[in-house]
Design a protein that fits this description.
By secondary structure, the chain is of the alpha/beta class. The chain folds into 2 domains: 2-147, Globin-like (Orthogonal Bundle), CATH 1.10.490; 154-269, Transcription Regulator spoIIAA (2-Layer Sandwich). Helices cover 66% and strands 9% of the residues. A 5-stranded mixed beta sheet has the order 1-2-3-4-5, sandwiched between helices. Helix 4 (63-75) packs across helix 6 (106-150) and helix 5 (79-99) packs antiparallel against helix 6 (106-150).
């Protein structure tokens, strides 16, 4: 029975394809695919339906399905395009096969439904699995990228690095900050680390505890940690919470913190204009002689 149904579908593939193309055209209305050119949408649809028929002819072979799914995922098309397209194919194929018989009974109707479902289900499973695996990989890469961006450690001069923190600090992020901080201090041979909390909206007991832990860990490996970006409201909060930051230098701004870092590494900022003025005075005095 199943072979007979396949024969009907394959021999009348042109009619089924035409009905399917008309049905799937509705997906372009009011969906993300409305931004896709008509040429690309039509060519992708034809490739899609050809893949379905190849799978049916090849007794469920998924090779063509894998190639097509990779292409769709790369183009960024939604999974709904695949699932809706297969459901449309299921519907128009069943309707076409049923229209080929003069007298329809429940037994034949049931066999047609089961037969077409057996063609479509393996394709759906394969495409969903491909999509799931691909998106999990993408999400994993994005998570790593966000983690790297959420706690960057940037060397600005020899032996001086800065870690700017922006946004909320939770336990998971605090752990990442600690790891990046310690690894970066060793990698960059940092003598002074500036932790800038200007972009941290709220500093509560937990956040302060994590920052103190990070600063203490830096101190234990022989470096100095300066906490910068202490706004008045944060200073008041820290005092009200009874948090002791006496062990760690604190500054209200990154600029002041950087000047302290230079002093700790035996460097200072010289005014070049003042140097030029001194030289000019020296030249004038020589001329006067």
């Amino acid at each position: 029975m199943d072979r007979n149904l396949k024969r009907i579908a394959i021999e009348n593939s042109d009619s089924i394809v035409q009905r399917w193309l008309e049905a799937i055209e509705t997906l372009k209305e009011g969906s993300f695919t409305s931004n896709i050119s008509d040429e690309l949408f039509e060519s992708t649809n034809r490739e899609f339906v050809n893949v379905i028929f190849k799978s049916i002819q090849a007794e469920g072979s998924i090779e063509a399905v894998e190639v097509f799914s990779e292409k769709i995922i790369t183009l960024g098309w939604p999974l709904s395009y695949i699932t809706d397209g297969l459901q449309f194919f299921r519907r128009v194929t069943i309707e076409f096969i049923l229209s080929q018989v003069d007298k329809l009974d429940s037994d034949y109707f049931s066999k047609v439904l089961t037969g077409v479902d057996n063609w479509i289900e393996p394709i759906i499973r394969q495409l969903v699995n491909e999509y799931t695996g691909s998106w999990e990989h993408i999400v994993s890469l994005q998570r790593v990228a966000l983690q790297e961006l959420s706690a960057p450690l940037m060397p600005v001069m020899d032996n001086i690095t800065i870690m700017p923190l922006i946004g909320t600090i939770d336990t998971e992020r605090a752990k990442l900050i600690m790891e990046n901080l310690l690894e970066g201090v060793i990698r960059h041979n940092s003598e002074v680390v500036l932790i800038d909390i200007t972009g941290v909206p709220v500093v509560d007991t937990m956040v302060a505890h994590h920052i103190i832990q990070a600063a203490e860990a830096v101190r234990l490996i022989g470096s100095t940690c300066i906490l910068v970006g202490i706004r008045p409201e944060i200073a008041q909060t820290i005092v009200n919470l009874g948090i002791d930051l006496a062990k760690f230098p604190t500054k209200s701004s990154l600029q002041k913190g950087f000047k302290s870092a230079l002093e700790l590494t035996n460097r200072q900022i010289n005014d070049l204009d003042q140097g030029v003025s001194d030289i000019e005075q020296m030249i004038q005095s020589l001329k006067g002689e």
